[in-house]
Every structure is written in structure tokens, then in C-alpha cells.
Amino acid sequence: MTITLPQAMGDLLPTDAPPQWRAAVVRAAQLLAPRWPTGPVERAPLGVFASLALILYALHHTQSQEPAAVPVSALRDVLDGGLDVNDEPFTIKKLITEGLSAAGHRVHDADHVMCRVAARMLHRDAPPVVNTPLGAVDVPFGMGGSVPGPSELRFAAVWVKRMLGALDEYAIAALAPAPRPAGPVNVMVTGQVLIISDDSQALVQCAECQQDERGQLAVDGDQVTYTCAQGHISAQRRLGSGHVRQAIARTQADDGVTGQLYVADAHLPADADPATLHPVRTARL
Predict the structure, then answer these.
(1) Bridging pattern class, strands 215-220 and 185-189
(2) How far apart are CA 192 and CA 206, in angstroms?
(3) Beta bridge partners of 216
(4) Can you give the pLDDT of all 285 residues of the chain as single tens digits?
(5) Angle at 14 between CA 119 and CA 248, to 5 degrees
(6) Which of 47, 52, 56 is CA-nearest to residue 20?
(7) pTM higher than 0.70, yes or no?
């Protein structure tokens, strides 16, 4: 199933999202709506959407511009900014970091959705580490080691530029309002919730009593929680919010899920179908 634009918006907008972030997400959705995929695609442009929202949010706090009033030409100027020696979009990263700082936050401030999104988009895999008599050290580049892997922002920035490049002044003036974002989800699952990856599965359990049936699965923005039958609430970091929304949508159940619920692992694309990942284990889908 292709992730819809309202679903993507909902993943970035928890109920406590600040108004400036909400405005940035709504404007990003409006700009990307004309080219948002409506049919099957290899991967929904979620990183593109998140990157554009972060840029609009940062411009609001560094240049006092309302997200809806930022000219597309200004966005193109940001996207044309410089790269560092690893081809990472240095100018965009600097803008996002400065924007969060101007708003009183840091990239790794996990209490705020825009910081969690920024941390995910800016993250680069660490270089190899080896153990030596002096302790664990990074393997230097040129001595058998490697530089960190590319950030998700590096690829997303290229696609943002392409998608905005298709908008001329007439198309921008004719843009329809952004769709209404998907709201929080709260659904009872009578059976177990199983996280499916390419080669394994994991069971969602209560962190306190280990119960794993007749639980309440809740999604609010990018956060997922599981409430067991005893009322204990536990955060579920292996469950991506978009993955849970897609899993529930596949059941076509409006008032609860009867039996087991299969959810693709959060490290996989949000529109990955668990039935295609591990058919034997998901045979009852």
C-alpha cells in the first residue's frame, strides 16, 4: 500500500506539535502534493517531505518568515547550497541546526518531534571501531577504515530540489490547500502484535508484565505505545508510526483488530508489506 500524504503528515504531527512546526508540515505538504505518488512506488518520499518541513521550520526561526510565506525561490536557494567533502548538504544541515537552536532546541532533544525528525535525517552511520590495548578507536579513513555512511538528508535534498523544480509561478499560485493530516490512532488488538523483518520476527510485549495479547496499540505523530490488558503503558521504539498505520489499514478494521497484527520492522520502508517479507510467518495475514 502506498503511504498517502495525510498519513505522512500525521506521522510528523503529534497532538502536542508546536504551531510553527505544524505550519511548516502543512506548507511542505501543499508544495509536494502535486507530485506525491498515488500508486505503487518503490519507496514513498517520506524523507523528502520531512526535509522540506525542517527547512521551512528553520527559515521561520532564523529569518522570521512564516512557512506559508517562504518563496519557493528562497527554498531553491537553500537547496543549491554547498556540499562538504563527503557530498553532504552542509548548508542545509547548518540551517536546520541553527533553526532548532533559535527555537531553543538541539538536534538530539528527543522530547520534540522536529528534533527527532532532524536527528533521523542528519544521522550518518559511524565508521568502523576496533578494540586495541588502549581501548576502542575509530579506524581512520585510508587505513582500512571508511568515512561514515551518507545521511538520509543527502538523498532527500536532491529529490526536494527535483520536485520543487517542477513548480513554476503559475503552478504555485494554483496550489490547492494541503489535505487534512491523519490523526492519532488507538486500536485494540485481540491477539499478538508481531514485528516482521526480512529474516526474523519479534513479539510486542508489555515492558512491565510481559503480557502480549488483548493490548491497545496507539499512534500519535511519530510515537507508538502499547497498553497491555493490565493498563501498563510502554513505548515501542521498534514500531514505526507509519508502519503501524499501514498495518492497521491492511486489516480494514475500523473498531479493532481481531487476531494477530503483523507490522514491518521500523528499519524497513514504512510501506513494506510484512506478507512479502516472511510469507511463512505471516501466513495468517
Answers:
(1) antiparallel
(2) 11
(3) 188, 227
(4) 678 999 999 999 999 999 999 999 999 999 999 989 887 665 668 999 999 999 999 999 999 999 999 999 999 999 999 999 889 999 999 999 999 999 999 998 989 999 999 999 998 866 555 455 555 444 444 444 456 788 999 999 999 999 998 888 899 999 999 999 999 999 999 999 999 988 888 999 999 999 999 999 999 999 999 999 999 999 998 899 999 999 998 888 777 899 999 999 988 888 788 888 765 455 444
(5) 100
(6) 56
(7) yes
Grid cell of 138 as nine digits: 575509530
73: amino acid identity, one letter: S
Joined together, the cell numbers standing for residue 164 give 520543487
3-state secondary structure of 62: helix
Cα(196)–Cα(69) distance, integer angstroms: 42
Q: Which position has the grid cell 518531534?
A: 113
Which residue in the block uniquely carries the three cell numbers 495525510?
Answer: 6
CA distance linking residue 187 with residue 14, whole number of Å:
17
Give the integer Cα–Cα distance in Å for 214 and 193: 10
Helices (H), the chain: 5-12, 19-32, 46-63, 72-79, 90-102, 113-122, 152-165, 169-173, 241-251, 274-277
Q: Supply the DSSP string of 202-228, one letter for each residue.
A: EE---TTT---SSEEEEEETTEEEEE-
Rounded CA-CA distance 229/213 in Å is 7
Centre a 10 Å sphere on the Cβ of residue 63 and count the other Cβ atoms it contains: 12
Nearest-angstrom CA–CA distance, 82 and 58: 17
Q: How many CA atoms lie within 13 A of 17 on its CB side?
A: 29
Cβ–Cβ contacts within 10 Å for residue 32, how many?
Answer: 22
**Which are the contacts of 134, defined by CB distance < 8 A and separation ≥ 6?**
none
